[in-house]
Specification:
With about 500 residues, the protein is of the alpha+beta class. It is about 25% helix and about 35% strand.
Length: about 500
């Protein structure tokens, strides 16, 4: 009986615990059911909330569809003549082979031969009548140009004009009602804007890459004489040259030109010629077949903090006038040495390069306002732009030959020595050509040639003008050393410029 009572009590206690456990479980279940909807609703709310309400990529598809048909593939061929004596036959002097083939065979074998060189690039149709803008280096020296459209139609390209100083060229195909890209205003570009690069890298047609405008107004890159590049991180690879750089409105804001690379491939830095410069060059080439540039007639230099302080300037922006040449637009306008040009034709002048580009882009004989700082005060003058003189010659690699190696003449510019320049240099009764610039790192600079040197003779042949200079240097080979006799501040010295190794 005792055992039965104990068992009964134990049963009652166990049953009580069981009931309590069930009640607690129900309560917890109800509590969890009450909490779960709130947590789930919050999680779903976070998942449905977009990170970017209007992703940029949603807008690129229509842009690509609109612009791509106007970007073309350009392939060129060039016939290279190998001169007699190059790569002689290893069997030419073997009597055994001469016995069977004869001397005439080896004379033909070792005579002048030809080989074909091909290149690929891109171009942009900017006029439905078939005008295409591209890079000069894409079609330079080409004997034949083939243009392939996005729909695989092929045309022969005709060169309308080239401008090596900006590395631009215009070609035309015989077709009508072609798709074209509208010009954009590159002056309105801002750093950080989205841009698309469209072209044919490595021969892959219609390749589109996206990036932003990394910088504007890039100069002194060493690609062309006139540089005002747009820098972008949109991938530009070999074959993209001459292709389109467009903004999010589908307008052409640049012509892809080059990349900065240590490996030959894309490294995140690409350069494009701004559309405003490209359009100006194209208009001139189409109308006249050449590019005419405005000219001021001053020698300018870059300001630094010390110079800015000496000239009582708030900052180092502008171009310091070091010399005003006689009988030039600058002299007629009243510009003086020591003036700091801060604005030209309504555009701000940040440095000598920007002034050079602005003046060059100004129409000939146009009257424009020039704002200068003189003795710490602003002064506005009116100048009538002239045409850049034709007596300036840039010495560079010969157009002949099939190698890219530059001769010892590369890397400096000369111009005719005028009485005004002679007075500035402090020399009298002398003829020759004056060195107007020397490229940094060139063989000429390494040899000691300096700006302001007056070249009296080349390889012991007297030169009295740029025409004489060109006539003499035109006969110098790329592997020849050049002996110059120069007048430097009244003293005469000899300089030997050796070709690059």
């Amino acid at each position: 009986m005792v055992i039965e009572r104990r068992s009964f009590k134990i049963g009652i206690i166990a049953g009580s615990f069981l009931v309590v456990g069930v009640l607690v479980g129900v309560a917890l279940t109800l509590r969890m059911d009450w909490m779960t909807p709130a947590i789930s609703e919050s999680a779903v709310s976070q998942q449905m909330q977009p990170v970017i309400t209007n992703p940029p990529q949603n807008h690129f598809v229509p842009i690509v569809k609109a612009v791509s048909p106007a970007v073309v593939n350009i392939s060129t061929t060039r016939i290279i003549k190998q001169q007699q004596g190059q790569a002689p036959s290893p069997f030419a002097d073997d009597p055994f082979f001469r016995h069977f083939f004869g001397d005439e065979f080896f004379r033909r074998f070792n005579g002048p031969r030809k080989r074909q060189e091909s290149a690929l690039g891109s171009g942009v149709i900017v006029d439905p009548k078939g005008y295409i803008i591209t890079n000069n280096h894409v079609i330079e020296k080409a004997d034949k140009i083939k243009v392939v459209l996005s729909d695989d139609r092929e045309y022969d390209g005709k060169v309308i004009g080239t401008d090596p100083k900006t590395d631009l060229a215009v070609i035309k195909i015989d077709a009508k009602d072609l798709p074209s890209v509208a010009w954009g205003d590159s002056d309105k570009l801002e750093v950080g804007e989205y841009v698309l690069a469209i072209g044919n890298p490595f021969g892959l047609n219609q390749t589109i890459t996206m990036g932003i405008v990394s910088a504007i107004g890039r100069a002194n890159v060493g690609i062309a004489d006139y540089e005002d590049f747009i820098q972008t991180d949109a991938a530009i690879n070999p074959g993209n040259s001459g292709g389109a750089l467009v903004n999010v409105s589908g307008q052409l804001v640049g012509v892809n030109t080059a990349i900065f690379s240590r490996s030959g491939g894309y490294m995140g830095i690409g350069f494009a010629v701004p559309s405003n410069m490209a359009k100006s060059v194209m208009d001139s080439l189409v109308k006249t077949g050449k590019v005419t540039r405005g000219w001021l007639g001053v020698s300018i230099q870059k300001l630094n903090k010390d110079l800015a302080k000496q000239f009582d300037l708030p900052d180092s922006k502008g171009a310091l006038v070091g010399e005003v040449m006689e009988d030039t637009p600058a002299e007629a306008a009243g510009i003086e040495a020591g003036d700091v040009i801060i604005k030209f034709n309504g555009k701000d002048v940040d440095d000598p390069t920007s002034l050079r580009n602005i003046v060059a882009d100004t129409p000939i004989n146009k009257k424009v306002d020039v704002v200068v700082i003189r003795d710490g005060k602003k002064k506005t003058l009116t100048v009538k732009t002239g045409e850049q003189p034709k007596d300036m010659a840039k010495v560079g690699p010969s157009d002949e030959g099939d190698e890219d190696q530059a001769s010892g003449l590369a890397g400096f510019e000369v111009r005719d020595l005028t009485p005004a320049i002679a007075r500035e240099l402090g020399i009298k009764n002398i003829a020759g050509v004056v060195v107007s610039s020397v490229e940094s790192g060139s063989q000429a600079q390494q040899a000691g040639l300096q700006r302001g040197d007056v070249i009296l003779s080349v390889n012991r042949k007297i030169v009295n003008s740029v025409a004489d200079f060109n006539a003499v240097t035109g006969k110098i080979g790329k592997d020849d050393s050049i002996l110059l006799r120069v007048n430097r501040r009244g003293g005469k010295v000899f300089i030997i410029i050796k070709p690059e190794d």
